[in-house]
């Protein structure tokens, strides 16, 4: 199968067969991020005959587009269900892209937080919100056998991104799910550092990227079905993730999100691999 036949600037850099489908990796020049970007795609076997719906997966701090495809085992269920997996990187990349001045893992490269940065030197590259919501879907739906029927999911920082993007664009996503998401970033150290660096000191701007704030504002409106899994042995739970905050808001608004504590599970990909099939079946039941 030929991919991106109308886009000479998109390069296929890796291809492997798995569960009857194709695990692919591409590079392209991103206009939104003003740099070269890599992204990974799993095409299920059904895509050889017809266009298929997709789940967009957003990864967490320090990850690239390859962590989920190599560690989650998601391709087995995706192949069975006939769902493509679209896996972007977690930040812009390149020598000209600004990083954390101290080289810390929780800001800069590998830590784009899925926001549109307004502060220099980050604003010229860190437009991850626009990349995920607009540029990447337009690209893959034009160049691959993928429909505009999409869901969104993610882990940790990516769970934050999935919830925020799904809630702010409810007409674009059939369902939302998250593993161990940062649900209230304006109240945790990871979020405060990222938002002050990317968005500046005006905390009103921060609220547009906080899932708990968004659910409180929109929970009584029509929103996509939401599934959240959180391990109760997660070492980031108390200080960074604040799951109880969104549980409280979900109850107060009657939003209907299914938020589950999973006993004994931590923050790792072992946790994701355990429940990813359930998440994909949840999305399959909601994709139109």
Q: Tell me about the biggest sheet?
A: 9 strands, mixed
Mean pLDDT: 97
- Give the CA-CA distance, first to last residue: 25 Å
- CATH-wise, what's the superfamily? Alpha/Beta hydrolase fold, catalytic domain
How many beta-strand runs?
9
Quickly give the structural class.
alpha/beta
Q: Which shape, going by the Cα principal axes?
A: globular
The second-level CATH architecture is 3-Layer(aba) Sandwich
Number of domains: 1
Q: Order of SSEs, N→C?
A: EEEEHHEHEHEHHHEHHEH
What descriptive keywords fit this protein?
288 residues, alpha/beta, single chain, 9-stranded mixed β-sheet, 10 helices, 9 strands
Give a verbal description of the structure.
The protein has 288 residues and is of the alpha/beta class. The protein has a single domain, classed as Rossmann fold, CATH 3.40.50.1820. It has a nine-stranded mixed β-sheet with strand order 1-2-3-5-4-6-7-8-9, sandwiched between helices. Helix 4 runs parallel beside helix 7 and helix 7 runs parallel beside helix 9. The longest helix is centred in the C-terminal third of the chain and has 18 residues. The model has no long low-confidence stretch (mean pLDDT 97).
């Amino acid at each position: 199968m030929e991919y991106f036949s109308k886009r000479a600037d998109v390069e296929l850099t890796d291809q492997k067969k798995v569960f009857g489908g194709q695990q692919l990796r591409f590079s392209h020049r991103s206009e939104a991020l003003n740099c070269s970007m890599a992204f990974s795609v799993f095409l299920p076997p059904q895509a050889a005959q017809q266009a298929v719906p997709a789940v967009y997966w957003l990864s967490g701090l320090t990850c690239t587009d390859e962590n989920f495809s190599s560690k989650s085992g998601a391709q087995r269920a995706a192949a069975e269900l006939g769902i493509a997996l679209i896996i972007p990187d977690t930040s812009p990349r390149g020598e000209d892209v600004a990083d954390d001045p101290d080289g810390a893992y929780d800001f800069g490269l590998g830590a784009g937080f899925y926001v549109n940065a307004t502060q220099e030197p980050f604003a010229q590259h860190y437009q991850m919100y626009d990349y995920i919501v607009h540029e990447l879907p337009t690209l893959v739906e034009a160049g691959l056998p993928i429909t505009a029927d999409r869901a969104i999911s993610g882990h940790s920082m990516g769970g934050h991104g999935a919830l925020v993007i799904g809630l702010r664009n409810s007409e674009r996503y059939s369902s939302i799910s998250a593993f161990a998401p940062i649900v209230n970033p304006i109240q945790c150290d990871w979020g405060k550092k990222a938002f002050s660096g990317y968005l500046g000191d005006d905390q009103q701007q921060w609220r547009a990227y906080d899932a708990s704030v968004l659910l409180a504002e929109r929970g009584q409106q029509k929103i996509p079905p939401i599934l959240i899994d959180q391990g109760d042995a997660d070492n980031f739970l108390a200080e960074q993730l604040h799951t109880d905050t969104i549980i409280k808001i979900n109850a107060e608004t009657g939003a209907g999100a299914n938020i589950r504590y999973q006993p004994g599970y931590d923050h790792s990909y072992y946790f994701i691999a355990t429940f990813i099939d359930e998440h994909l079946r949840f999305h399959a039941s909601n994709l139109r």
